[in-house]
Amino acid sequence: MSAVTRRGLLGAAATGALSLAACATPATNTLAPYARAYDGTVEFGHGVASGDPLPTKVILWTRVTPKTGTGPIPVRYDVFAADGSLPPLASGMLSADAAHDFCVKVDVAGLAPATAYLYRFTALTSAGEVASPEGRTRTPAAQGTAPVKIAVASCANWQFGLFNAYKAMAAEPDLDAVVFLGDYLYEYGIDGYGSETAEALGRLHDPVTEIVSLSDYRLRHAQYKSDPGLQAAHASAPWICTWDDHESCNDSYRTGAENHNPEKAEGDWSDRKMVAIQAYFEWMPMREPESGNITSAVWRSFNFGDVATIYATETRLTGRSPSIGWSDVINATDTDGTVTQAKAHLAMMNDPARTMMGAAQETWLGKALSESVSGGKTWQVLANQVMMARVALPDMTKVMTPEQIDAQTVPQVKQMIGFSALGLPFNLDAWDGYPAARERLYDSVQAAGARLVTLTGDIHSAWADTLYDSDGQRVGVEFVTTSVTSPGIGAYVTDIPDLGQKFVDANPEVEWHDPDGHGFMVLTLTPERVSSEFVKVSTVLEPDYTAKRVATFAAVPEGNGVSALSKV
Known about the structure:
Strand content: 25-35%
Distance between the termini: 39 Å
Structural class: alpha+beta
CATH topology of the largest domain: Purple Acid Phosphatase, chain A, domain 2
CATH class of the largest domain: Alpha Beta
Oligomer: single chain
Number of domains: 2
Strand order of the largest sheet: 14-13-12-24-25-26-29
Largest sheet: 7 strands, mixed
């Protein structure tokens, strides 16, 4: 970028080239309220980010870390043309303060559609100006059929490895956006999930205990955003973010979570949920629900010209009914008892009152799908957290040799071997545990004539699925990204080189499955086709890595629906 002069910035601030609306802190087009510089030292240790892109608006975010001194820190933001030329197209002032953990974000309006911009922040201190790193953002098209290219990621556990996938994602050229599907961070302490890998890498969680309080969640967000790979990915393109469970607590739902334990002094679930949401809003580049709305109601939509509408859903903290997983049913030594209990379990699972999104979000999505179709958008893309396809385990008693069965050392895997013969869905924390809610979603898709493309994370492995309703009618397609670092099925079910194919053979909706490795997806949408390239990094245990596209699957419009997937 060209050198930025103070005169140029002051001139842009005075003219108010773009209208501004602050999210977390007040914003104004004048420097006057902040004439007093911060009497201390600061740094930008967590990078910059942009998010929630609209044709004329985008959120810009950073955090200013006070090293010495007290009180609010005046922060200027500047938006430049993509070539960095002066003067800036917009400038304004923000205030970083302890009430928001010294994070600031602003909703910059008045931008041009389908346009790339550069931006940065500057802290005003008595010792001089301190500049942030530079970021790139882009607004989506308001209309037209230009291709849309999006990176898709999920499940980044600090303790399980290096964020090489983020670094590779940042190197992807010409991204219109990044869609993040949840598990941006994990709540566990250093003695839990991933502790052995973390010890070996010297990459232990901060704080060392499970995060429960507001200060805990803030510290964990700060640690994750200290990673250079994640910072690079945030600075490369605007993000559309939605949370899954670990941003609050494992297997969370509206009224509780599997990993929330009040008897262990973890307090009331509603209190923990609210502080987790507060820290998330402070640290993430996203718009927050308007005043008067439910705090966790973060579902929202984004149009990319006439090509696609992306719906960021919320399936954890607002409307999800409690999970009813198999752990209390499976008994490896009593098959008859397991069958009897499983039947009772299935009756509970099929209760139509069970919801994944809740009634308000279901109604919103049904209407939004219809509006997208009537507005001439080709694709309706669901940024969804958990597996939507129907998936059962392959019958391990038949498809595994005795030697392969004996080689399994993970207790949960050994327990599932007998259960797998029942042909039942194995992950009831996914849509398989909420079948009536899934059918209602499918009904909305079919009523709207939508071309459904579902993007999914959570399961730490890669999948390509064609989706069908309970009557066998094709409803859409699903692309499931593997994790940034979290271990997948292949890390636990070992010594079965064709495990992915065994899942394909056992499940009519599954076209392809890769149970190993880490990476992300690159989704490309045009009026003629949607395709997903599955990208894997060679390692997350060393800083030197390679990135490789291991598979590509595509579908095309077909009437008011979508074709089955095909391998490219």
